[in-house]
Amino acid sequence: MRLSLAALRGRPPAVLLAVLLAVCAAVLTLPSTPAGARSADAPADRAVMRGAAGGGSVTSLPLTLAPNGGRVLAPRTVRRFELLGVGWDGPARALAGGTVRVRTRDAVTGAWSGWRELDADGEDGPDPAAAGRGPRGATAPLWTGPSDGVAVEVTPGPAGPPPGLRVELVDPGGGARSTGARTVPAEPPSGGRRIGHQAPRPEIVTRAGWGADESIREPDLVYTGPVRVVFVHHTATATAYECSDAPRLIRAVYQYHVQSNGWRDIGYNFLVDRCGTVYEGRAGGTDLPVHGAHTLGFNTDSAGVAAIGTYVTDEPPPALLTGVTRIAAWKLGLTDQDAGGSTTMVSGSDGSLYPAGTEAAFRAVSGHRDAFNTECPGTALHARLPELRAGAAALQGR
After folding, report:
1. Helices (H), 41-174
2. What is the model's pLDDT at position 195?
3. Does the domain formed by 44-171 have CATH 1.10.3470?
């Protein structure tokens, strides 16, 4: 608003007061940009940054129309990040049949990566009744390590580009501080209370232990019936990581699931790193049947355990397999479920391999691909599930 002092001379006080109020209202309604949201060569009003405790953040940059009808983000310098994905407004499978490619620049060396393709079919997620928000889709996240540059190319599928296409750049920060216990101690193999075939609990790093910012998730907790199936996943992130970096990666996935995908919390109930360390995922109690968002259509009466890494051709380390075996045996044993057995579940979504309402038989330890059209948990890890079942059943004393 432009204001001429000459035009106001001689005006009654009531008029002057009205003008001043109008000016104040205009100033208060100007769009604001969060501190640090501006990238080096992007307009400030195009970047949106959502903060998290411990210095973490998610920066969202919209994609622009390309000559071929797709959407792009030209190579640019951005706020430092370590994980990214592409999100949109609309159903999770709105980009099915399309392609999403990204390049990133290493913040240490300054070198640009080659083009890497992201899975556009939205593998994990809450069942529709549990979503609680408008439809929002996103690719699987990509762990890049410290990066400060990005470029994106999206070629839409048969349905065309969904609205609101954007790249989401996640900085996990140093983690939120907490006075809570950092681990739940392991039970001795031959000690502790036993109910039926309950296996000993492995040591579990709590949410406080990996630095979760509890303020960004939904505050209420949702539970399901007794866990009858453990679905094994992989995070489809880097495999050759230092185990000391696992908490950073988990924080990044958590922020992506909540702040980018719009989920109530991280999707997985547990995560296991390459050193075999088990981490608490979704909040609500490690020994309780917390309703997750990991296997569309079968999140009820199940738990999701994610192996941190990509295990399509890379063989999962023995320690990781041991960690998955131990948490599956304990979680199923809490309600005397045979880790080597089978059960029948009812699909809750047409987006799964089975139409909603269809009964489907699953092994008690199954892979994500057994319930959804996906590569997860990777061919190499899926091939090891028989030995995981046998190991978990042995831990249960079967």
Report:
1. 128-131
2. 63
3. no
